[in-house]
Amino acid sequence: MRNDEQPVLLVTGGSRGIGAAICRSAAGQGWAVAVNYASNRAAANAVVAAIEAAGGTAIAVEGDVGSEAGIAAIFAAVDKTFGRLDGLVNNAGIVDAPARIDEMTAERLERMLRINVSGSILCAAAAVRRMSVRHGGKGGVIVNISSMAAVLGSAGQYVDYAASKGAIDTFTVGLSREVVSDGIRVNAVRPGVIDTDIHASGGLPDRARDLAPTIPMQRPGTAQEVADAVLYLISPSSSYVTGAILNVSGGR
Ligand code: NAP
């Protein structure tokens, strides 16, 4: 049973992979969690069921962060169920099939930037409207999920994806300074190679295992290892941290 004092966290793309681990961990730390998904309702329901079985509070929220209507629906559902928002994790993101620049189309690029960049910026805008002390809110936290690709560039695989995460890094720094006086902290996490379904979605199901020898720690990371960093950044333990970008990459 939820009490009105319980802080509310929205995790975009919370149904699978890194997002699902963030949802479960945040619920364990006392957050009521809105588990957003794009199409995999069963996966989102499974995350909600696991949280509820452990005594936590969660709802599944459908909505495509790559569409304005989808974002409006996500925040409307959070408003309706919880009536407050205290944190946002901009986790939803996509890759595409490995390609060189000479094979990339405008359509591919538009989708990549719409979901990875515009989706994160517009979700942050909606969250700031609710959390900012300027708008009568209580302040809050935002964590953006970037990628080591922002630094390494992903040559020969997906430079468009890497560029989208470079935008997330820059957005994190700018937004953190813009909303610091609104009572909102903004940070980012840069995962390295993490063992999730995202690699298969790009047509490289063995990517995490194949890259292991190139990673200083000689292994891919787990979704939970990324979630642990995010949990630090949404907790009061990081009360003096804003505008930071934390690599969670096994040294990669
Ligand atoms: P994943 O396993 O493919 O899961 C993606 C999640 O995002 C799913 O919950 C999916 O929902 C959701 N999603 C996808 N498109 C969406 C949209 N348009 N609107 C709303 N939700 C959407 O991915 P992951 O590996 O956990 O990646 C999570 C984040 O970490 C991404 O931003 C990714 O770029 C970043 N990252 C991952 C790695 C890695 O190696 N895994 C490394 C660096 C950075 P459905 O279940 O409904 O499809």
Q: How does this structure look, described?
A:
- The protein has 252 residues and is of the alpha/beta class.
- It has one domain: NAD(P)-binding Rossmann-like Domain (Rossmann fold, 3-Layer(aba) Sandwich), CATH 3.40.50.720.
- Helices cover 44% and strands 15% of the residues.
- It is built from nine helices and seven strands; from the N terminus they run E-H-E-H-E-H-E-H-E-H-H-E-H-H-H-E.
- It has helices at 17-28, 41-53, 68-82, 106-131, 149-152, 159-178, 198-201, 207-211, 223-234; strands at residues 8-11, 32-37, 58-62, 87-90, 140-145, 184-191, 245-248.
- Strands 3-2-1-4-5-6-7 form a seven-stranded parallel β-sheet, sandwiched between helices.
- Helix 2 (41-53) links the parallel strand 2 (32-37) and strand 3 (58-62).
- Helix 4 runs parallel beside helix 6.
- The protein is globular.
- The N and C termini lie far apart (42 Å).
- The relative contact order is 0.14.
- NADP nicotinamide-adenine-dinucleotide phosphate binds at residues 12-13, 15-19, 36-40, 43, 64-66, 91-94, 115, 145, 147, 191, 193-194, 196-198, 201.
Q: How many strand elements?
A: 7
State the distance separating the first and last CA atoms.
Answer: 42 Å
How are the strands of the biggest sheet laid out side by side? Answer: 3-2-1-4-5-6-7
- Range of helix content: 40-55%
- How is the biggest beta sheet arranged? 7 strands, parallel
**Class per helix and strand makeup:** alpha/beta
What's the CATH architecture name? 3-Layer(aba) Sandwich
